Amino acid sequence: MATKTAGRKMLLGGEWVDREDRIPVYDPENGEQIDSVPAAAKEDMEYAIQVAEEGAAIAESLTVRERMDILNKAAAYIDERREEFAETIAKEGSKTINEARGEAKRAAETLRLGAEEARRLTGESINFDQMPGNENRMGYYYHFPVGVIAAITPFNDPLNLVAHKVSPGIAAGNAMIVKPATETPLSALKLAEALVHAGLPKKVLTVITGRGRDIGDTLVESSKVNMISFTGGLETGEAIAKKAGLKKLSMELGSNSPAIVMADTDLKKAADSLTSGAFAASGQNCLGVQRIFIESSVYDEFKKHMTKAVSSVKLGRKLSEDTDMGPLINEKEAKRVQEWVEEALDAGGNILAGGKREGALYHPTLLENVPEDATIVKEEVFGPVVMIFPVDSLDEAITRSNQVNYGLQAGIFTKNIDAAMKAARRLHVGGVMINDSSDFRIDAMPFGGVKGSGLGREGVAFAIEEMSEKRIICFKLEDF
Ligand SMILES: NC(=O)c1ccc[n+]([C@@H]2O[C@H](COP(=O)([O-])OP(=O)(O)OC[C@H]3O[C@@H](n4cnc5c(N)ncnc54)[C@H](O)[C@@H]3O)[C@@H](O)[C@H]2O)c1
Ligand SMILES: O=C[C@H](O)CS(=O)(=O)O
Fold first, then answer.
1. Aldehyde dehydrogenase domain: from which residue to which, for each copy (predicted)?
2. Ligand 2 atom closest to the CA of 285, numbered from 1
3. Which of 68, 100, 334, 411 could form a disulfide with 259 if both were Cys (CB 3.0 to 4.6 A apart)?
4. C-beta of 405 in contact with ligand 1 (< 6 A)
């Protein structure tokens, strides 16, 4: 067994605090405990909320320049320690070291985007005299912070998806209570280190670790929390929304991303792109490609390319430079994926690649002939499985793409601009990638989905709007 490192502390009320009750953090690759974090109690969350109310006044009083400097310094802190952040991401989660380095680089960028948007969060004048009788009125609106924001984050991108909440939240002058995923809390705590080092005043940020059942409801149901910014599964999101009461909600939820391959495209390039999009982060990726619809005239040729590409995904230790894919977050999730695949095979599907589990590792799997009513077609697999389906037309591909209760992003591969624009307009999703898989994102773009994929948009310039309020100021002047 690996020696337990000294347990991490959580950031509560501006202080790093410990608790006797602790939650182990395991490396999913070998099941070894790599660290532990405090298990906050209900009283700790109550205190966090009380402190955050004080923190909100402090955050609002920060000048725009101060907010910019803090976010830029925190970004530099991460850049200077990228390997350390990457190793934390890789060890506590499923990502390979190369994937983790990419996430650490993106998280620094996400913080810098917050600094930029802090500068741009202005308002504008209003022409009151557009309505007769208002000739002597003038004014403007401006933004002010929501106040206290609860940021609840998932396990799969344990650093950048926390940054996507904290960066716009601080940029807009809010106090943040971060409740990271129980499986991967360490990266969120390191982000807090970066922000504290950058000079973030005490009480503005809390990163509280604990079991959802102990602290989740206290956070979600508190009337002193003005907004919940949640990223996670649809079921959890719905449960939180029901308990939240009257407060702002941002929901980045699940997906079941489709891709369309038209006959006029480069089939090998499409297969390589879709393989990357399906198996990044072991498929534990909200943008992961799950269903591929291929024009039937090129189905067999595409199948050959896709089977070869999926079979070439290199498994290995997460910290090895040449590993393409690591394990799922735990063996329980790998067993669930295995059960979904077995159900699909029992219903008539067949395996073209993969289909093997070794502990928490599930081999990259390609299926065909899976019936539409199979669980793995309708629900979010959130694992390394992708399915191919022949279609007779683009219309059929679009209709079938839209047949699930998710709509985050989709991809279409075609050289035909009319086909691309038809897909762009008729796919019921938050983003359509032309000649890319669904798994494309830059942190500055609007990000989010429709149906069971969520409410609202992240992407720092868009999240900052959701994390702010507008106030109109109107002057009624005498003669002027
Ligand atoms: N749309 C996006 O941007 C996006 C990004 C990443 C992941 N996701 C989704 O997240 C899911 C995978 O992540 P996960 O397994 O961590 O999700 P999850 O829903 O199990 O957990 C997400 C977070 O919610 C917390 N939580 C769970 N129950 C809670 C409760 N009752 N009250 C308060 N907090 C509670 C968890 O501890 C965790 O911090 C997938 O569905 C994936 O699609 C979406
Ligand atoms: O898992 C979902 C992530 O938001 C996708 S990305 O890592 O931000 O591209």
1. 16-471
2. 1
3. 411
4. no
Domain limits, the chain: 10-253+454-472, 257-442
Q: Which of 231, 285, 408, 442 to mutate to test the pocket of ligand 1 (most atoms within 8 A of CB)?
A: 231
**From the candidate CATH numbers 1.20.120.1200, 3.40.605.10, 3.90.1720.10, 3.90.640.10, the one assigned to the domain spanning 10-253+454-472:** 3.40.605.10
The reply to whether 252 belongs to the active site is: yes
**DSSP H/E element including 339:** helix 331-346
**What phi, psi does 256 have (nearest 5°)?**
-155, 75
Write the CB contacts of 346 (distance below 8 Å, at least 6 apart in sequence).
Answer: none
Between vectors from CA 95 to CA 314 and to CA 290, what angle results, nearest 5°?
A: 70
Using an 8 Å Cβ cutoff, are 388 and 299 in contact?
yes
**How close is the Cα of 349 to the center of ligand 1, in Å?**
30
CA 67–ligand 1 middle distance (angstroms): 28
- Ligand 2 centre from 440 Cα, in Å? 9
Which is nearest to 406 in space by CA: 424, 385, 429? 429
Pick the residue whose CA is nearest to atom 35 on ligand 1: 212
471 - beta bridge partners? Answer: 142
Distance from C-alpha of 423 to C-alpha of 433, rounded to nearest angstrom: 10
CATH number belonging to domain 257-442: 3.40.309.10
Residue 281 Cα to ligand 2 midpoint, Å, equals: 10
Tell me the per-residue pLDDT of 146-196, one tens digit each, with 9 for 90 and over: 999 999 999 999 999 999 999 999 999 999 999 999 999 999 999 999 999
Whole-structure pTM value:
0.97
**Which amino acid residue places its CA nearest to atom 9 of ligand 2?**
441
Q: Do 10-253+454-472 and 257-442 have matching folds?
A: no
Q: What is the pLDDT of residues 197-210, one digit of tens each?
A: 999 999 999 999 99
- Annotated active-site residue 474? The verdict is no
Indicate which residue of 99, 109, 117, 286 is catalytic.
286
Q: Is 152 in the pocket of ligand 1 (CB under 6 A)?
A: yes
Q: d(Cα 124, Cα 472) in Å, to the nearest integer?
A: 10
Tokens for 437, please give them: 């898989």
CB contact at 8 A, 189 and 11: yes
Task: Report ipTM for this prediction.
Answer: 0.98
Q: What percent of the chain has pLDDT over 70?
A: 98
